[in-house]
Design brief:
Strand content: 35-45%
Strand order of the largest sheet: 3-2-5-7-8-1-4
Largest sheet: 7 strands, mixed
CATH superfamily of the largest domain: Immunoglobulins
Structural class: mainly beta
CATH class of the largest domain: Mainly Beta
CATH topology of the largest domain: Immunoglobulin-like
CATH architecture of the largest domain: Sandwich
Amino acid sequence: MKLFNTITACLLLCAGLVSCEMKDELKGSGAGTSEVGYLNLGVAVNASQNSVVSRADNANDDGENVGVAVSADDFPVTITGVTDPSYSKEYESYAALKAENGGKVELPIGEYTVTAHSNAELEPQMATPYYEGTTPIKITAGVESSAEVKCTMKNMKIQLTYTANFLAKFESWDITINDGSDNILNFDETDKNPAAVYWMVAENVTEIKVAITATPMGGGQEVTESRLLSKPEGSNWAGSDALTIQMEENTSEDPTGIQGSGITINASVSFDEDSEDVPVTVKPGEGSSEEPEEPGTGGEEEEPEEPEIGPAPTLSGEYLTKTLNFNKSTDGTFPVLTIEMEVPNGIEDVIVTADSDNLVFKSMLASKEFGLTAGASLITNTTLAGLFPPPTSGADSYTFTLNETLGGMLTNFTGNHEFTVKVIDEASLSAEGTLNISITE
């Protein structure tokens, strides 16, 4: 019995050592290497967005709006390993990074992601703009590399204004600005000169709803209006847009029927360094004094054009239809396995799911770091870049590769292993295939 316990303990120890060694190999060399290179890093805020943010707030002596440069000196900077995800280097500010060794950063050779952002926490509504940027870098032994992190604005500027005739007409009001999410902006008569708000607009929003209920001076019939605001050409609202909304009393009948009879809501947007503010498309919203016509009542209704959607993705590869049987003692070098993907509508994501009947290897696949037994994205999970070449979002093709290095690691674990790869395109069409591998000795 004592001999049995001793053998069992030795087997468990060997499995643990193999597991740790395998995990280190999967993560790459990175900070474990003695070879280093150097990074000269620049961090800057997108110049056009500086202008967009400040255009409505700053004017020169001739009345022309001018931009004010936003410094990135106080932006925290983080350098995170891709080759070795456990490696990271943080600076409390870009100024601190520049002050250290003249701004030259020494790093172990490998691939990294550099991130910089405003020295604040990004919140749904803020009094200041929030900037963030990320860029990949590669460090080569003994070489000075240069890179720049271009920080772009993540929240949208909303400036609400009132004309003199509006303030003279109404004694109280409630205004909401809504993108369909729970992040709603609220304004009322307690602040007649509201400061700009920097707002996290939801993704894929083409219309912003503005609603107002106002009570005239001395009481009287409440006025309720709402409008739907769209950018020119119907593009999505996004961070770096600067939307100005003006409330005005409507003193004359609006012949277009768009602005109703009580309040005129004007709007314009800035989203480019060189262009002037451009008008926003305004149409009645639900509850306004002029409701949109029902379909079919304003003449022949045009059929909306259906977006063109290409064919679903297709996969091809020698081992999609058969199992690779590999004897670690006699078969030599593990072959490179590939799956070719054609994605006419552009890649949205590639998901890899792995399984094994070798319990040691399966426990590694299921680890929080890799998450492969539950399925992991090759687009968002940067840890997996050391295992598989990452696909490019929007690309129309991709080669999934289970390379010689990973294959060589697999040979440490006898048993049956499978890697299922699913590609999803930007039209939500998908295709998947599985590589089956049997390791014997």
